[in-house]
Design the sequence.
């Protein structure tokens, strides 16, 4: 029993045995906690000033809109350059953005428009940073550990979702919004030091793509020609647009649907993140990921999200939000792992960039739309829409995958490939 537990524990955290990845993991844990601190504080600032779901939706559009327009081009750049050097630049500029937020938050009477402008600048930096940062993971570990490294990275993001919102709720209610942004700015120093301390000689780099015309189109065509990527990314388009808008739907559910406080919103988000952490650790133990994993996770996500729309009170909402966190992040982590494993090294940045556009870049469309729906029809309706959309995606994807791949993705199927790790369920 002890031996089996030790084996499972070792398998779950195997990629942390690589020093470069361990440094990256620690730096990103601190920095991402700061990011979530800022995300929650900025949302609460807008909601405190306006009380409007539409206003929160437009904030999210400012934060993630640039991804829709620039991320794929940033992915093609990430495929051509030294990713660590690019991250030095983007992380330093993101630190400066948080400093600006802190300065203006400390100035009484600062117009809300100023925060929208800074959020837009931050979105531009995120569009440049995200493809490089996420595709950099595969250069830090051996090929056999890529899936584990990706899922542990997702678990780290969700651990930061627990820490960041909890600190945000405490700081906003005691010291104000400015200190939340200031602490986020300080957190970037940790990730920059981690990048500096990495040993470049131990990177698992692949030949970089050569600059040429049509690289963005080539990346999109590559995804379309790869059935697993085509189906999983089509699913992500719908789920990213209508289901994955927690920054908009959660604060509105707590304030308008359940008549709760800012602290209860941060606790709801922490409950969601605890569930998400459990979900990623479960996926991290798997040595293989398949389209079947993604489709079933999407179905479970739809069921949990639909249940959240009907919770009677905040304590029940905490429990259901934890379930939503577990299944939603299992779905998203499996999608990311599939993208990392199926993408050729020279295409990794572009594939991750397209995934980012579908996951986050659709938020500027879905966020304001769902915020408006909440204002018109009630705070629970956008969550119900997201749940139904995920369930519909599950049904259509299962049928489409069966037809396109000439196999039933809900059956036990194993694929052995010489070029990539086995992708089975």
Sequence:
């Amino acid at each position: 029993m002890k031996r089996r537990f030790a084996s499972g524990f070792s398998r779950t955290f195997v990629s942390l045995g690589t020093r470069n990845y361990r440094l990256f993991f620690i730096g990103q844990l601190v920095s991402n906690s700061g990011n979530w601190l800022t995300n929650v504080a900025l949302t609460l600032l807008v909601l405190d000033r306006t009380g409007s779901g539409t206003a929160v939706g437009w904030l999210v559009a400012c934060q993630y809109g640039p991804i829709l327009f620039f991320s794929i081009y940033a992915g093609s750049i990430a495929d051509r350059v030294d990713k660590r050097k690019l991250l030095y630049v983007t992380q330093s500029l993101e630190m400066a953005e948080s400093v600006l937020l802190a300065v203006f938050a400390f100035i009484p009477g600062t117009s809300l428009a100023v925060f929208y402008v800074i959020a837009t600048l931050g979105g531009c930096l995120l569009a440049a940073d995200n493809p490089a940062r996420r595709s950099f993971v595969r250069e830090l570990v051996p090929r056999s550990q890529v899936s584990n490294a990706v899922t542990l990275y997702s678990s780290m993001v969700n651990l930061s979702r627990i820490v960041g919102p909890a600190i945000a709720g405490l700081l906003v209610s005691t010291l104000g919004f400015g200190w939340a942004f200031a602490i986020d700015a300080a957190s970037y120093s940790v990730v920059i030091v981690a990048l500096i301390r990495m040993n470049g000689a131990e990177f698992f780099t692949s030949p970089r793509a050569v600059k040429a015309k049509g690289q963005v189109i080539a990346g999109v065509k590559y995804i379309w020609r790869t059935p697993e990527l085509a189906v999983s990314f089509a699913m992500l388009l719908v789920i990213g647009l209508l289901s994955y808008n927690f920054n908009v739907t959660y604060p509105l559910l707590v304030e308008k649907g359940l008549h709760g406080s800012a602290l209860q919103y941060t606790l709801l988000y922490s409950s969601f993140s605890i569930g998400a952490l459990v979900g990623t650790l479960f996926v991290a133990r798997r040595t293989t990921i398949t389209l079947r994993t993604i489709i079933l996770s999407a179905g479970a996500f739809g069921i949990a999200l639909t249940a959240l729309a009907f919770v009677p009170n905040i304590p029940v909402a905490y429990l259901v939000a934890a379930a939503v966190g577990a299944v939603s992040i299992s779905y998203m982590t499996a999608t990311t792992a599939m993208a990392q494993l199926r993408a050729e090294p020279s295409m990794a940045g572009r594939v991750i960039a397209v995934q980012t556009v579908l996951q986050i870049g659709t938020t500027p469309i879905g966020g304001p739309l769902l915020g408006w729906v909440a204002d018109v029809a009630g705070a629970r309706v956008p969550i119900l829409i997201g749940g139904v959309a995920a369930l519909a995606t599950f049904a259509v994807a299962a049928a489409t995958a069966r037809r396109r791949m000439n196999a039933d993705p809900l059956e036990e199927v194993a694929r052995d490939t010489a070029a990539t790790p086995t992708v089975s369920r």
Observations:
- Residues 407-425 have pLDDT under 50 and may be disordered.
- DSSP finds 16 helices and no strands in the chain.
- The longest helix spans residues 19-50.
